[in-house]
Amino acid sequence: MSNKQFDVVVIGAGPGGYIAAIRAAQLGFSVACIDEWANEKGGPAPGGTCTNVGCIPSKALLQSSEHFEHAGHAFKEHGIDVAGLSLNLPQMLKRKNTVVKQNNDGILFLFKKNKVTFFHGRAAFGGAAGAEGYPIEISGPTTETINARQVIVATGSNARALPGAPFDEKLILSNTGALAIEGVPARLGVIGAGVIGLEMGSVWRRLGAEVTVLEGLPTFLGAVDEQIAKEALKLFTKQGLGINLGVKIESVTTGENNVTVKYTNAKGEAQEGTFDKLIVSIGRTPNTNGLNAEKAGLQLDERGFIAVDADCKTNLPNVWAIGDVVRGPMLAHKAEEEGVAVAERIAGQHGHTNFDTIPWVIYTSPEIAWVGRTEQQLKADGVAYKAGTFPFLANGRARALGDTSGMVKFLADATTDEILGVHIIGPMASELISEAVVAMEFKASAEDIARICHAHPSLSEATKEAALAIDKRTLNF
């Protein structure tokens, strides 16, 4: 008896995988999606790292911890007196888990709605393509082999551990453990001042931990526009995050209830820190182990990423790869766009992903968001540009919110006025950046944004004013 046959089989149900499966089904293909994530009861938990131990739960905890900090500090200014404030961490974690489950269940519902067949288990290539396509072996809660005419690999990434200091998720934590600490640590160490390190450090600082961040690079947030990064460093330090740059980790030693980190600081001086918990956020590695890539002849590069061309095609016919497992930024929304594009390419359409207009967000407080090139990149490339900034301090809505830190910054071509980059640090930056993404997709000029009517009072007026600042004609600053 032949195995079940599908037009498209997607391996992985993270943001890239489940979206690719749904789009392929919309286009009329018979589609299967295979994913091994399990909830605490052993049931399926599609959504990948993002839904289970990444984007979604971290935002839930960021929101909860921000409420706690506001209740303890900011409410008084609003005329709200809170007596006997206390933290119920188990309830906070329970709410986070509920939000995760709602997203898991939502994906399963979408599969059903779009007639995507879901298999709960780990998928691997069973060999090279045969007459019925590629054999895909599923093991785990579901054990069987299916055949795929087209394969989309969307297996995501794993947290990178420090050499000699593996994650135990009790003392040395990846993002997984950082989202499930059962008691607020008095002293929390964070190695890596990237997105995950800063977000998780912010959560636990707000809840009462003394947080020390150790970053190997000499500059803070090197990928961010320098002016924005300097503002962020100033604000985060003022909040109480202890940020150390230019650090070299010498050793990490676990005790019974603590972790000791020996390191040298930027001056080359020997330092030592002892922490109740240590979060390690030094990047992520592609999740290709166990895929049996070699059995099918699928080519990986020296770092374990699946080698693809600009269209996400691998070296094998009818095998595609998307998201964290291929080149490009490790962002959920980048994976989603690639998933849609690949499904459309399989259907003979012209799927498209524009890497130049992918927005980036750090969900700290204030939030940081940007799209396009930074000022330092434009200088390095020799591009003549104009810059305009506008502070939230001069924005009426920000004053009413009681959150006036940060600014909006526009960078535009000096000759054509085309928007080359927009950088925001401030309240709701993650939402405000969308206007800039749309503008850049349509090759808009700064003048276009400056001439659009923005609602008053709104935070988006700061975007309009920063566009006006390109020609030094702000109206409210």
From TrEMBL:
Entry-linked Pfam families: Pyr_redox_2, Pyr_redox_dim
Q: Which residues bind NAD(+)?
A: G192, A193, G194, V195, I196, G197, L198, E199, E215, G283
**Disulphide-bridged cysteine pairs:** C50-C55
Q: Which cofactor does it need?
A: FAD
Which stretches are transmembrane? none
* Principal localisation: cytoplasm
Which BP terms does GO give this entry? 2-oxoglutarate metabolic process
Q: Locate the residues binding FAD.
A: K59, T155, G156, S157, D324, M330, L331, A332, H333
* Gene Ontology cellular component terms for the protein in this record: cytoplasm
Q: How is the cofactor bound?
A: Binds 1 FAD per subunit.
Q: What else is known?
A: The active site is a redox-active disulfide bond.
User: NCBIfam families in the record, alphabetically?
Assistant: lipoamide_DH
Q: Which family does it belong to?
A: Belongs to the class-I pyridine nucleotide-disulfide oxidoreductase family.
This chain's protein is named Dihydrolipoyl dehydrogenase
Q: Organism source for this protein?
A: Pseudoduganella plicata
For this protein's source organism, the top of the classification is: Bacteria, Pseudomonadati, Pseudomonadota, Betaproteobacteria, Burkholderiales
The gene that this protein is the product of is: odhL
